[in-house]
């Protein structure tokens, strides 16, 4: 399913029937025995609750929307909405307060006299939400992180309703809980602010990559006809440096993916909706792919193809997504670097880098 979700204080919640072969209320035909045996076909009907946050171009909550204002498609096919309801922050607070009173008294609280008629119809839609802000300091640049965390702190002010709890995790080789689950926005903001002093290890990888680029540029300048004249010693030297860099990046990536699996396992037992917000400067599908491709072009060799296959980590991402789906955890990924111009003309290099190589990186 694909929906454009915008954060806002007015939540329009509705449920759809995604799969179903028998309509609600329709009488199922009685099975007739065949040869003394009855054959029964089981049909699974899935109801999916989707929360939609709506804002206008000025960032203000949009109110007064109805079911007719929404269209839902799955794989290009329209889906019928079986239920539609809108609920505001005030209604959420009312329901959560009633649930808290019920938990403290140990007695079931009847809807009448406890919550309004509007809140009564929405109580079943409001489930606990657990959000993990996963700051990947192993794969982030400090400037990128500090800039994006200031925006995340503003987001926290809007998303932390009474039924939402947030945890903050900082990762450097292994995950560290900076702030356990809490519904206190101030505690979450303080935890995020403390991370601005943590070292962002991506700068080390950038520095190592820059050294290899300078070496490759020197080789390219000294051998105009690279395929015919390239020094074999230089080729072996660059091959070893690229492999060493790719091995290091692949190892760091394995640490990152294993840390995420560990967090997913922790979230699996929590009730309600579970969300992991991954904040980094980007993770590679194929570590050092840009340098490996460049090396192959520089020496006009096809030997770079096995190296690309060796460092391909796409299956690891597929396995991680499957694990998240199996445990009911939703991933949201934030590229902390944001939109940026090409770095091919950076002053740290002796000459501009091929834009294609920069694009691959």
- Unreliable spans are 1-28, 109-113
So how many helices? 11
Radius of gyration: 27 Å
How many strands, what sense, and barrel or not for the largest sheet? 5 strands, mixed
- Structural class, please? alpha/beta
Strand content: 15-25%
Strand order of the largest sheet: 8-7-6-9-10
Share in helix: 40-55%
Topology as a string of helices (H) and strands (E): EEEEEHHEHEEHHHHEHHHEH
N- and C-termini, Cα separation = 30 Å
Q: Kindly state the mean pLDDT as a whole number?
A: 75
Number of strands: 10
Shape assignment: globular
Describe this entry's structure for a reader.
The chain is 41% helix and 19% strand. It is of the alpha/beta class and 361 residues long. Mean pLDDT is 75; it is low at 1-28 and 109-113.
Explain the layout of strands and helices.
Elements: E1 11-19, E2 46-53, E3 73-74, E4 77-78, E5 81-87, H1 89-105, H2 117-120, E6 129-136, H3 142-159, E7 164-172, E8 174-182, H4 185-194, H5 202-222, H6 226-229, H7 232-267, E9 273-280, H8 289-298, H9 304-311, H10 314-326, E10 329-335, H11 355-360
Parallel strand pairs: 6-7, 6-9, 9-10
Antiparallel strand pairs: 1-2, 1-5, 3-4, 7-8
Helix pairs in contact: 3-4, 5-7, 7-8, 7-10, 8-9
């Amino acid at each position: 399913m694909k929906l454009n979700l915008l954060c806002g204080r007015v939540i329009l919640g509705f449920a759809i029937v995604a799969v179903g072969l028998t309509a609600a209320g329709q009488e199922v035909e009685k099975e007739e025995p065949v040869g003394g045996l009855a054959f029964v076909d089981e049909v699974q009907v899935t109801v999916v609750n989707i929360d939609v946050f709506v804002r206008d171009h000025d960032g203000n909550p949009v109110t007064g929307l109805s079911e007719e204002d929404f269209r839902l498609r799955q794989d290009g096919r329209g889906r019928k909405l079986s239920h539609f309801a809108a609920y505001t922050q005030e209604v959420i607070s009312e329901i959560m307060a009633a649930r808290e009173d019920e938990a403290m008294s140990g007695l079931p609280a009847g809807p009448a006299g406890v919550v309004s008629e509007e809140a009564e119809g929405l109580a079943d839609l409001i489930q606990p939400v657990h959000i993990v802000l996963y700051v990947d300091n192993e794969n982030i640049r400090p400037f990128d992180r500090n800039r994006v965390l200031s925006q995340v702190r503003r987001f926290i002010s809007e998303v932390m309703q009474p039924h939402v709890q947030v945890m903050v995790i900082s990762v450097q080789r292994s995950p560290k809980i900076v702030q356990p689950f809490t519904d206190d926005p101030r505690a979450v903001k303080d935890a995020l602010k403390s991370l601005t002093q943590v070292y962002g290890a991506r700068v080390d990888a950038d520095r190592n990559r820059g050294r290899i680029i300078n070496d490759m540029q020197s080789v390219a300048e000294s051998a105009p006809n690279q395929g015919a004249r390239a020094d074999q010693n230089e080729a072996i030297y660059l091959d070893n440096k690229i492999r060493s860099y790719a091995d290091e990046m692949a190892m760091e990536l394995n640490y990152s993916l294993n840390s995420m699996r560990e967090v997913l396992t922790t979230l699996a037992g929590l009730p309600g909706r579970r969300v992991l917000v991954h904040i980094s400067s980007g993770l590679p599908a194929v570590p050092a792919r840009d340098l490996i491709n460049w090396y192959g072009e520089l020496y006009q060799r096809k030997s770079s193809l096995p190296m690309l296959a060796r460092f391909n980590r796409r299956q690891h991402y597929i396995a991680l997504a499957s694990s998240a789906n199996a445990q009911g955890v939703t991933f949201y990924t934030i590229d902390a670097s944001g939109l940026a111009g090409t770095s091919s003309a950076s002053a740290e290099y002796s000459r501009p880098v091929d834009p294609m190589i920069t694009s691959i990186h």
